[in-house]
Amino acid sequence: MALRHLRIFPHTLPLTLTPKPKLNNSNRFSFFTSSLSLSSTTLMATAHKVLVPIADGTEPMEAVIIIDVLRRSGADVTVASSSANLAVQALHGVKIIADASVSDVAATAFDLVALPGGLQGDENLRDCKVLEGLVKKHVEDGRLYAAVCAAPAVVLGPWGLLNGKKATCYPALMEKLAAYVAATSESRVQVDGTVVTSRAPGTTMEFAIALIEQLIGKEKAYEVAGPLVRTSFTAMITLVVFEKQRNVAYTGMLHITCWWEGLVQTIQSYVDDQIRLNSLK
């Protein structure tokens, strides 16, 4: 049973373990390479700050993939419970220990807020007034926000944060989503301005990589995606890659995604319209 209890820890570079200042008695640590001369305080100040809210009923796969992949990029991810109880009972008997409550971080400015799915969990997130105020202020400030699975239709839509946007969500909730958006999309990941949406646990890896691209940049997204060895599902064929003055330019990328849908094998080939020509001056 102990394997069902997940305490989320960063795990970017495992050389020197430095305790991060504790937030409301939560256990968090940051890993830094000893070769860097910057202090942990400086690194924390310059890292992109990400909030991942969770609640009882959250889909654990989506939450953990988002947290894990973003921490691999070097982002400073805070996992916040919508209630005062930091021990969150996610779906499928999985317990996740949050770093803080949403109320603890209500005054904090984040670079990204990413909402995992799980219908019951998203209903709990939607009903958290402190979180609603935090996210609405975040969006008003023009910052990046994202949601996967049920969250676009159950949380962002009712909060009025998808007005005029093109978005996607869990297939069974697309009709509900349509009432809140300018257009729906069946894309596995949909980017429209500062909002990123996705469909389900099976699309969350792509969703998390897309968040790194939007938050930090394409080069970091490629750096994180490579070691994850996702080629059994997605083959990323780089057409032209060259390096000049320590800057890497990518002039194109073809994504080929293959998956099973029921008993019918569907092969979808597409060009990622978010990867555009980059040239070096």
Automatic annotation (TrEMBL):
Keywords: Repeat. It comes from the Eukaryota. InterPro entries: Class_I_gatase-like, DJ-1, DJ-1/PfpI, Prot/Nucl_acid_deglycase. Residues 48-214 form the DJ-1/PfpI domain. The keyword Repeat applies. PANTHER family: PARKINSON DISEASE PROTEIN 7 HOMOLOG (PTHR48094:SF12), PROTEIN/NUCLEIC ACID DEGLYCASE DJ-1-RELATED (PTHR48094). Belongs to the peptidase C56 family. This is Protein DJ-1-like B isoform B.
